Amino acid sequence: MKIRFTFKPVQQSQRQLIHKWIAQDHIKEWLHGDGLSNTMEGLDKFFEGASWGEHWIAYDNDTPFAYLLTSQMDEDAITLDLFICDLNYLGKGIAAPMIREFLISRFPNVKRVLIDPEATNKRAIHVYQKVGFKIINEFIASWHPVLHYQMELYMKDLLERCESESKRE
Predict the structure, then answer these.
(1) Model confidence pTM above 0.85
(2) Residue 66: what pLDDT?
(3) Domains in the chain with CATH codes
(4) Percentages helix, strand, coil for the chain, rounded to the nearest 5?
(5) DSSP secondary-structure letter at 87?
(6) Is 65 in contact with 59 (CB distance < 8 Å)?
(7) What is the pLDDT of residues 137-147, one digit of tens each?
């Protein structure tokens, strides 16, 4: 697998960048209310070293373009949330490769990855399915009471698929 992107923890000096990014309409549509409050609170706690999760920025060379959040669910699983934030990167077909690279480079030893898009977020669901996530449950989220899907990816499946694609190249 060719590596295109790098992923680094968010730095305190990038706090304003994150705030600017999540204020954009294409992100506010999906991140608002309690979800937004929890994310911002988590970011502040991350800077204090007391967060429930990790906050990441994806880079294309030196250009930051995406915001990712992970948290440990249990010993076998992590959760993932992500947003393509730089408008120049939207609709370019890079979300699936970025997710694959992120998970393989940062979480190769995790058994499962969980993600929970709103059921109406068809674009995100399509991308997640391209990566290999499968819908395993539906639920109404406490932070935004609309239908969400719980999607799951087994890292061994992702690693095997990427290995077989590399052999074909």
Answers:
(1) yes
(2) 96
(3) 5-168 (3.40.630.30)
(4) 40, 30, 30
(5) G
(6) yes
(7) 998 877 777 88
